[in-house]
Each structure stands twice: as C-alpha cells, then as structure tokens.
Amino acid sequence: MSDLFSTILSSPVAKRAGVPQPTRLRRFEPGMPLCEGPVLVAGGGRFADGVAFWLGSRGVATVRTPSDASDKLGAVVLDLSAAVDPAELDQLRLLGAPAVKALKRNGRVVVIGTDPATLSDVAEVATQRALEGAVRSIGKELRAGATANLVLAQGNASDGVRSAVEFFLSGRSAYVDGQIVRVDESTSGEVDAVRPLTGKVAVVTGAARGIGADIARVLSRDGATVVAVDVPAAGDALAVVANEVKGTALQLDVTAEDAGRRIVEHATTRHGHLDIVVHNAGITRDRLFVNLDEDRWRSVIDVNLRSILRMNEAILGEGGLGDGGRMVCVASIAGIAGNRGQVNYGASKAGVIGLVTALSRQVADRGITVNAVAPGFIETEMTARIPFATREIGRRMKLAAAGRPAQGRRRDRRVVRPARHGCRHGAGRAGLRPEPAR
Ligand code: NAD
C-alpha cells in the first residue's frame, strides 16, 4: 500500500528543505541488546535496587543520577512506589526531567508505582493515581521514538516488576506508549528473554492474514507452537501462514457451534496442550446507525463477540486452556471511543472489553489471565475497505497522534503484556485517545 505523504516526506527534496525526518523505531530482533545506552535507575521505592541489580546482571550499565552517565541515556526507570504524599511527586520532576533531556532516540521512561487499588490511605491513593496522569502526559511529550509507561505493583511483586520493565525497555514495546500495567506477586522466576514462549501452544483465530497472521509470526518468533485458525475460504492463505510459522492450520468458522471444542481438540491432540488463545478474528460491516440492517448487525456481533463467549465454554472447560494460561482478545479503539458508521462494531468491541473484565476475575484463581488489546488504525484488508479519503485521514491522525511520521507502511501495534487481572487496553499514546478506528 503506497503512502504518498510518507514518500514525499522522505524524499531528497524534503530532506534538503529541512523537513523533520521520521525516526526509525527500535524493533525487537533476537540478539539485540535490551537497551541502547546506560539506564538511570532512581527513586526511593522498594524495587529500584532490585531492578538496578538485575540490569547489571544483564550487562546493562546503570547510573543513579543523569550526571553519572558519560553517554546519553538509553532509558530511565523511576521508582516512586513508596511515595505516599502528593508533595513527593516532585521527585518525578526532579529526577525525571533532566533524564528525559538526556534520553537517546528510542529512549524509554518507565515509572514504577504502587497499584492504588491495593491502598486505602486517601493521600497515598491520590499520589499513586497521579502517576498515571503524569506518565500518560510525559508519553505525549516524548519524541524520536521514545516511550513512557507505568508499572503498578501490587505488594512485593519484584519478579513481575522486573518482567514488565524488561518488556518496556526492549524493542518489543516499540509501539507501546502511555500504558499502565499492573503486576502482582504471582509472576515468579526468570523467563527466556529471547524466546519466552518456548514450549507453549498458542491458538490464533483469524490468522490467515492481517493482524492475526502477524500475531502468529510474533508468537512463533518468541518460541510458541502456533495453531493458525481461519475460515475454510481462507484455507490457502492460512496454510501459507501455518507453514511459515511451522505450526498447524485449523479451518473453522469461529461462529460454529463446535468451534471451541474443535480448537481444544486440535491443540491437545496435535500438540499436547493449550496455553495461549488469541481471539483475533473479526469483521466490520459498516453503515450509519439508521441504515443498519439485521444482517450487518448480527454478523458483526456474532463474529466479534458472541463467538468468543461460545468458544470460551470449551476453551476454559475441562481439558482446555491449562492453569496459568493466557487469553488475549483483540478489541478496538472503536469499542472505547465509538466511531461513526460503526455502531455494530463499536458495540461488539466494547462488549469484548466487558467480557475480558468480567472473565479475568472469574479465572484469576486458576492463574489464567485475560486481556484486551485495543488497536488504533492498522492497515490491513479490513481497513482497505475504508473509503480513500477517510483512510488517509486515519493515517494522518495516527501519525500526528504518535508524534512521529511513519516509515513506509507502518503497522502500529499497541499491545500490552498480559497482566494478572483485568483488562488492559493498549489504546495508543494516551490510552483512550480517540483515533480513527476499525
Ligand atoms: P482482516 O480482515 O485483515 O483479517 C481478519 C481475519 O479474520 C481474516 O483472515 C478473516 O478470514 C478472519 N475471520 C473473519 N471472520 C471469521 C470467522 N467467522 N471465523 C474465522 N475467521 C474469521 O482484519 P484485521 O485488520 O487483521 O483485524 C484483525 C482484528 O483486529 C479484528 O478483530 C479487528 O476487529 C481488529 N482491529 C483491527 C484494526 C485495524 O485497523 N485493522 C483496528 C482495531 C481492531
């Protein structure tokens, strides 16, 4: 898909004219360093020492003040988890502002706080909740591929904090910005930093193309055995993806009565178990509300929402997703902000978010996490159906919102790591910022 604006922007003429050039984002590749440049670890919280020690063990240089660094900083990790009074928020400015000035391209700001939900003192809750507003706002100010994210710890979740910090520092989180991740004490032990999903079996629905195919590729890259699911009509493309990721293909319509049972059967008989399910299959059937016919309404609700509920009966039943499993549902920014012409789609995706919120509580005691990802505008065959002018506005708004022009055909992926409980919406730099939606 050509992007005329990006082509003009990166032309020699534009460069000579001094038009700001896009930053090439640091994307994860096996073998790349966790962070490019020293990491400032500061703040008086309960995790800073452990994070600094762990970074050292990973060969990453750490400093305690910006002036200690001889080079520009690759990242700054600020631990404000012990702040109990709003006056202490000033640490964020005192420690963070000079560090942000000294950040390299594609730098990272990670703030660690305490989950306000675990606190009762009013001033302390207010202080910790303030971090959310601050981090989302810092994220909006950062340029040149840098991101800012917040890790909220429940109790002494040191392994969970370390795992989240690792994700945010790495190239895996290139598109994750302004996000809040909660971690609790149930995460423990080290994971393989390069192939963290080794030994896991993952099912991805709607995997024949678009976002689903890319999810399958990433899960496979990270070590999982992938079962790629899509409708029989997409069988050829599905086989190509399944072969590419060295997984298996399962042709089925997710709305079929027995879809969940067939998924479990396929995963367990072919691969021995089922550890990860990504409910990604989805459709749009856009019309203004007043023109929405029954077929457009029903098909979107059925494919995007009801199928997940139905499949989950088998997937979460006996012999399905094992304890400690992971489920991710692909929602949409349209399910948060709504979108013109998409009452059916917006309803279905908001429903997915509700489903995730309720279900995550129900299965928490089995150590299963259920999360939602709410992407903004990602160019796929789904968005190719949008009229040209609307699509161009979508692209431009996305770029403006991201504060950096795209490199060619960029696919924004706003993915948030599984958190222990509840729903995390990876919804762009400001979390809930309305963007042109699909
Ligand atoms: P896409 O149309 O390119 O791919 C969707 C895939 O799902 C296709 O391979 C299709 O065959 C499959 N599918 C559709 N109905 C199915 C069914 N009944 N059973 C099995 N498979 C079925 O779309 P995409 O852009 O890759 O979207 C993937 C997901 O991301 C969807 O849930 C979509 O709503 C969501 N999403 C997309 C965007 C975007 O901008 N592209 C934004 C937000 C959310």
UniProtKB/TrEMBL annotation:
Transmembrane feature ranges: none
Record-linked SMART domains: PKS_KR (SM00822)
Domain of life of the source: Bacteria
Residue segments, region Disordered: 402-438
Bias (Basic residues) ranges: 407-427
Any Pfam family matching the protein: adh_short
Residue intervals of the Ketoreductase domain: 200-376
Similarity annotation: Belongs to the short-chain dehydrogenases/reductases (SDR) family.
Protein name as it appears in the record: 3-oxoacyl-ACP reductase
